[in-house]
Amino acid sequence: MSRTTYSPFRIVAMLLCLWLMPLMTLAAKTITLREEPRKLPITTRSAPARRLFASGLLKLQNLHGPEAMEDFRKAVQLDPNFGMAHIMMVFVSVDPSVDPAEQISARDHAIAARSKVSRGERLVIDWLVKSSEGNMIPAIQAMNEVEKLYPGDKFLAWLGAVWVENQQELAMAIPMLERAIRLNPGFAPPLNELAYCYARVRKFDKAFAAMRRYVALLPHESNPQDSYAEILRMAGKFDDALVHYHASLQIDPGFVFSQLGIADTYALMGDEPSARTEYALAIQQAKSKMEAANWALQSATTYIRENDYARADDAFLNMARQAHENDLAVPEAEAYRIMASYQTNDASAMELLAKAEEVIQEQHSHPLPKTARHQELAVVLRQRASRAAHSGDTAAAVSTLDRLRELAESTHDQVIRIAYDGAAGAVMMAEGKYEDALPHLEEDARNPISMNLLVLAYQKTGARERADQMSIILSNWNEPTLEQALVVPEFRARSTEAVKASSRM
User: Fold this and answer.
1) What is the CATH number that goes with domain 40-149?
2) Contact 178, 197 (CB under 8 A)
3) pTM, two decimal places
C-alpha cells in the first residue's frame, strides 16, 4: 500500500538536508562487512514477547498494520517494559486506522521504559517520540545517531527511509531506500517504498521495475499485488490496476486495503456509484472505527465528483456526527473542512472551517498526538487563508498566513511547511503577485490545487512550456484525494473543450 527563491521554510528544508547528510553519505556507499553487521539490540525479559515483536515487525513491513499492532499489544502485555514494542506501536499509529488515544498511551509507556533499554533503543525511542510531538530537529539528531551506531542494520535503514518519506522528502528517501536494498537484496520492504517514491516523482519505469522485484520476492503476499495495482492506477492504467487488486484478494480475501483500492479506482474512473458500493464493502471489513471513518470520508467524496453537493452535505454531516460520537477528532474535523472546500459562499465556508478548528483544539475531549493536531490545524489554516484571499479579506488572509508560518517555524514539520507554501502561493495568486507565488506553489507541486494555480502562474509569467508540462501532469493525476476530486475532473473537461475549440478554428 502505503522543491531559486527561498521562503523561510525552504531554508528549514535546507537545514533538514544538513541534518540528514550523514544518512545521505551512508546511502551513497555500499557497506561490505566480513562478519554479520552489528544490529540494534532488542531488550525484553520475555522470550515469547521477543517472538511476538519479530512477528509484528514482519507483518508491519508487509503492510499488515492491524495484525502487527495486535502482536505488539500482546508483546507489551507479556513485558510492560518492552520499550521497542511500545515505540513501534507509535510508529504504526501513523496509520490512520489506529485510534489516537492508543498512540498517546504507547508513547508514554515507551518513555517510561526508556531507562531500561540499550543506548540504541533509547535513541529510537527519542527519535519517534520527538517526531510524534512535532520536535523534528531532535528527532532527526536521534535518527542520525542510531544509524551511525548500527550502519548495517537493515531494519533501521528501512525505518529511517520510511520516516523521511513520510516527511515528504522523496529526493532524500530514494537513496536511503536504495541503500537499504544494497544492505540485503533479499529484504523486500524497501522495494515497495522505493517504487512509490519513483511513482510520486513520475518516474514510472523505475517504479514498475522496483515493483516487479518486490512481487518476485513475495509471491504469496497480498501487499505486493496491492502496491502494484496502486502504482498502475497512478499511471492511469485502471483496468490493469483492478486485475492486480483482485489478485491481491485472491491471495488473502481479508486484505481489506485491496477492497478499498478497488473503490478508489472506480472513483477515479468516474464510476461513482460502483465506487460507493465497493467502499461500503471495505467499511464493513474495517478493523477499527478510525479506519471506517476515513473510508466513509472517501465514499462521501464521490458526491463531489458528481457535483451532487446536497448529498455530499448529508454524507459529511452524518460522518461528522458519527466521528463525534466515537471521539474521533481528525475525521470529524476533516468532514467540516471538506464541506468547506466546495461551498460557493465564502462566509459559509469560513463557518465550517471554524467548526473544524474548534474540534481540533478540543484537547481534553479529543486526545490527539501533537503532530496529528498540528498537521490537521495546518490544512484548516491553509484553506482559511485561501478563502479569505478569495473573498478579498486581505487582513484575514495575512493574519491566518502568519499563524501558519509560526506553526511551521515552531515545529519544523515538513508537512506543515508545505501547507504554508500552498497557502502563501494561493494568497499571492489572489493578489495578482504571480512571480512571488511561483516558488511557494512549486514547493507544493504534488497538490492538484497548487498545480492548477501553477499552470496559471506559468501562463501569466510567460513560461508557456512549463505551463504545458504542468497541464499534462495535472490532467493525468490519479490519486484518490479531495484535491484531485475538486480540481482534476474539471481541469480535464476544460482541456478537452480547449482542444475541440482549437480544432474547429
Assistant:
1) 1.25.40.10
2) no
3) 0.82
